[in-house]
Amino acid sequence: MIRFTGTASRFGAVLVAGSLATACGTAGGSAGGRTSAPAERPAPAPSTSSPPASEPAPTGTSTGTTSEVDRVLADMSLSDKVGQLFMPVLYGASADASSGENQSRYGVATPAKAIKKYRPGGVIVFPWAGNVKSVGQIVGLTNGMQQASPEIPLLVAADQENGTVSRLAPLVTKLPAAAVIGKTGDPRLARQAAEVTGTELRALGINLDFAPVADVNINPRNPVIGPRSYGNDPQKVSRMVAAAVRGFHDAGVASTAKHFPGHGDTNVDSHSGLPVIAHTRSQWAKLDAPPFAAAIKAGVDAVMSAHVVMPKLDSSGDPSTLSPKILTGLLRERLGFDGVVSTDALDMAGVRKKYGDGEVAVRAVLAGADLLLMPPDLPEAHAAVIKAVKSGRISQERLDQSVRRLLTLKAARGLLESAPRADAAEAARVIGSAEHRRVAQRIEQRAGG
What biological-process GO terms show up in the record (predicted)? Predict the structure, then answer.
């Protein structure tokens, strides 16, 4: 049963972010500097049903989890493994609903048939794909899609940041945007908001949210981030992001920090163009990196890449999504992140300027990405990755690294034990509850709204 915790436990916790994690050194210093991040202030004792407020949520790396992941991985074919890397959009209000879009894009008519054909690691839901109509309908859709993937349950994701990016509005509780939460200066409210969102998503059968936004909005002319960010102060944003990660984990939902290495200082929208950000390595370490380091310290499940060029970090001219120096060199090696790296949507113009859709998928994997989000041509991208593995361009070891990370995420959220099944009556009870609405009101009041 989905349960929402009261204010006496997690909602009373106090969170204080430390400085940028060891990999980036002190603010203003070189990204190569290494100092220890200060410990967080102890929080009040939490309820026994959740991890302590100052500790990351479990990452699924216990011996039992590792054994389960190894067992599943050993039974997978090459096609199974490559399928796990993809998260497409499937069209229709139910898993068995026929759609011309599915037929033209995937060669089959229904979401269930597309899942059985490509065996993707996950699916993302959108209103414009006909996925979001009512609470009962979404529950039926997510349950039906999970039934179509009996061997390895799906990551079912949503882009539910709240505010301007709220894909499940008006069904879910209307919560303020991150900028409004940032105005309160209180990380406890960021945690509460994330737990509300996560609880409602989980009730719908959605187990991964592409939130929180970890970008620091230092450019007031930024056309794509703006109110989606908690603010323009890296340390304040860090505290809010870490709290939000913990709030999603309180609800039992996976979280994603985005958009790495930082999308806050641009005046170009990567949906329609390719932004170039001229930050030096030391500027990146001071301005962009701290919230991502804080998210990693808090146990974030995934980090999403940005379709931006940072020539001072990688002179190739490729967007960060396709950059080994950024995804592997900075995110993996410098910040020490070993969770899932997701691309931003691969149908965006910012990543399609230079390469075809199949080559983009291959280069993203080679750069360090594990999850290929919304490929515009799934058959082409899927075939291109398989070809790259067979030729040795992508090694079997590299493929297994990504599949292992995805399976580990699923195991950490209980998805390998059994396919989750949402309950429409429980979802109707949880979503928009009086307690959830009070959280929204409290944030607005504290922000001066």
Answer: carbohydrate metabolic process; peptidoglycan turnover
Distance in angstroms (rounded) separating the CA atoms of residues 318 and 330 = 15
Specify whether the CB–CB gap between 437 and 172 falls below 8 A. no
3-state secondary structure of 419: coil
> So what's the pLDDT on residue 267?
63
| Per-residue pLDDT, 297 | 98
Confidence (pLDDT) at 445: 96
Output the pLDDT for position 245: 98
pLDDT at 65: 75
Backbone angles phi, psi at 327, to 5 degrees: -70, -40
Strands 372-373 and 86-87 come out as parallel
* Domains annotated on the chain, with CATH: 66-447 (3.20.20.300)
The span from the CA of 236 to the CA of 186, in Å, is 9
The two beta strands, 302-305 and 340-342, are parallel
In degrees and rounded to multiples of 5, residue 154 shows phi and psi of -85, 150
Output DSSP code: residue 54.
Answer: T
Q: Which value, in Å, is the radius of gyration of the alpha carbons in the chain? A: 20
Closest among 377, 312, 320 to 344, alpha carbons compared: 320
Query: Residues in the chain with pLDDT < 50?
Result: 1-60, 272
Q: Nearest to residue 160, comparing CAs of 196, 121, 115?
A: 196
Total length of the chain: 449
* Residue 303: alpha-carbon gap to chain centroid: 6
Residues annotated catalytic, as ranges = 271, 344
Q: How far apart are CA 343 and CA 270, in angstroms?
A: 13
- Residue 267 half-sphere exposure toward CB, CA atoms < 13 A: 4
Helix axes 378-391, 357-367, angle to 10 degrees: 50
**What's residue 268's pLDDT?**
52
In this prediction, residue 31 carries a pLDDT of: 30
Q: What sign for the dihedral angle of Cα 66, 197, 346, 91?
A: positive
Cis link prior to 220 (omega < 30° from 0)? no
Q: Of the candidates 447, 438, 444, 449, which has an alpha carbon nearest to the alpha carbon of residue 196?
A: 438
316: phi then psi, degrees, rounded to nearest 5? -70, -25
Place of tokens 């390595």: 281
Strands 165-166 and 160-162: antiparallel
Res 74: pLDDT:
96
